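Same chain as my last thread, 480 residues:
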Amino acid sequence: MMDNMLCDELLQEIFRRLPPTASSSLSVSLVSKRWLNLYRSSKTSLSLRFLPYNSVIVSLSSLLSYYASLSSLSLVLSDATTNSTSSNNNSSTAFFDHLLFVVSSCCSNLHNLRFLAGPVSVSSLLSLSKACSHLTSITVSLSRPLFFNWVVSFCCLKELCLYVCSTDGVDDEVRRFGLCLNEELDAEFGLECLCLSGIQADDKGVGWLWRNCKGLKKLQLKSCESIVDGESFSSFIWCVEGLQEVELRKCRSIVDGVLLRLAENCASLNSLLVYDGGSREGLLEFISTCRCNLQKLDLRLPLDLNNDHLSAVAVNLRGLSTLRLQSCCLVTGESLKTLGTALHYSLEELALINCDVERKLGLLATLGQNLRMLRKLDLSYNEMLLDKEFISMLVSCNHLTELKLRGCRSLTSLTLVSISKTCKRLQSVDIMNCPGIRAQAVEFFVLNCPQMRQMLVEESKVSDIAKTWALHKVIEVTAG
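reply #2:
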């Protein structure tokens, strides 16, 4: 009876408001075939994992035909097959090209596409640009040799993420086609976000990207050995001036060059992340000479970050609102205290992840007293952190809205009780992998935190009473 009472449009509007979970899809599909079809047609986003078999092409075509409203699609190769297909040859590229053709044929209204099934050819990307002319975001894998001029064909593109993988060979037709595309061509386009992963020293064509990406606002580089076509950084400077966010992961050989150009040419940078690779001298030079008003600094440099860098931050980056440090084993407690004093007016988010804060006596108490503006605090994976040390900081942090203590294995239930009494504005807490915190304390916490909206904790620690109260107070309790 209910199935006949509700019109299609009303049901679709209801389905659009459902959370994107497997349980929602299953619940709807059990009502009737009509509900299932309407649910699929109302979906605007879809994420799929698959195995690289020929039958997938037919199945995917059939499946996508039910999703008429898709604007965002993610296709990723199953983890179980990633290693076996890492050395892709021409035949596998043809398979992934065919798969991309299915997508372009069935999803003409796409705005966002994440296609990490395998490397695709230039010709298939050009076909995609004609079929899906509204694409604003593309994530895709390419094989060598690299050709980038196809980007011009996507007139609405704002975000591009490219993963480079090796291939056993490139046939003559593709090579000739690519070489034709790689002719010098000034074709400035509207990219605002660019991510490159796996660029090697002998890869060509990257300089063309820099010369035509003068409107970039965000740049992400991952596992890149070079970005300059074997020449100087002169072409890279073209895209630097307007950058606002830069992320460098595992790019040791180019970090110094990138940071130097940012310090010299970029006054708009407000966020910098450097993980797993850098040099002490290059980072210190950037911090000491940069002209930008940096707001966020995120560093994971176990062997490259020391007290000199923090002293430079305290002097030159006093406007920081977010500071995230991971595995900073060469940094002393005194330098962190000095930094806390310098940033006491501006810092709203602090992360000291796996930084052995418990060995730096009095550090947390001093930081709590100085950083009265803190809203977010992350002390995850400080495994020896004790209740006394943590609570000494907590008593001064009355404005916290987000707290992460994941992996702090020495904390006990006393910490959670203290949080509930001190942090009345707390909205989100992560206490996963904290074996000293018991179910009774979790229940007390749920009952006594009026602003709480999200809690990450093992399901075994959530009692029936806690579940009931969490539902009543609209608290999301997950084991994420």
